[in-house]
Amino acid sequence: MDAGHGVLQRLRQARLGNWQVPGGGPLDALRAVFITHLHSDHIVDLNSLFTSGIFNGLQMVDRPVELIGPGNRGMLPPVFGGGARGPVVAPENPTPGTTETWELIKRAFATDFNDRIADNHAKSPDQLVKARDIELPSHLIADPNGNNVPDMEPVQVYEDDRVRVTCILVQHAPVFPAFAYRFETEAGSVVFSGDTSRTPNLVKLAKGADVLVHEAISREWLDGEMPEPRSPQVQAGYQHMLGAHTAADEVGKVAEEAGVGRLVLNHLVPMDWPVQRWRQTVKRDFSGDLTVGQDLLRIPLS
Length: 302
Ligand SMILES: [Zn+2]
Ligand SMILES: [Zn+2]
Fold this sequence. Notes:
Metallo-beta-lactamase, Chain A, 7-stranded mixed beta sheet, AtsA-like_MBL-fold, Metallo-B-lactamas, nuclease, endonuclease
């Protein structure tokens, strides 16, 4: 779709001659992008934001968009269940952080970027994006393979005239670092959990927020996928899932403890579980407003 869009634009403009990237669009107000963690389901379209973004307003930004996220993990995670480690991808740097990932994306899409710069007078990726790894205070430098979610206070990572953003480490083992973010604006506050199991840090970050967007996995569904009796290996896998994600029957407790006004469920596993079942499960423990998220949903603040 993206490629087709680009071709169509070109054909339209070719008739007009002297083709250039068009002006405004939904991305012309984009200031920053925040990455919770570097699992592919969370960053797989990052390149599209900046390659196709120039056709949707990004070309108009007056300064590079800040791309903010976790740094390099620093070491490979342990092999789940023990045993010998399999092949290592990119052994010279097997756990790149946000800045390195962006540099690698630029390299991977160099043909496209260079074509757009020459053919469409597009801005260069360095004019569009400035990547930054989140630096944690030194006393919080955790052992990625040990206790990697220490009790901590939120850390500020961004501020402009409209929004102040803080983050906190959450539990998505073996992923490290994994962050949740809080966005404070005049209109209200929004907390985004990222992928996490139940952790006191998230409750701390979300205290009193107007909106908490939180992931959820159905324990019932998982029970069906991995029925009892479970072998030790399957049981370990079962625990692994619940150690990295928050069961639906716990999300309401998290939101209630944090005292948020509205809870929005997202990153739903499974994605085809009926909305009513999510509601029934989560509402048992949560007294605020509940929204079961769907793609392209917009929730206004006040
Ligand atoms: Zn993840
Ligand atoms: Zn995920």
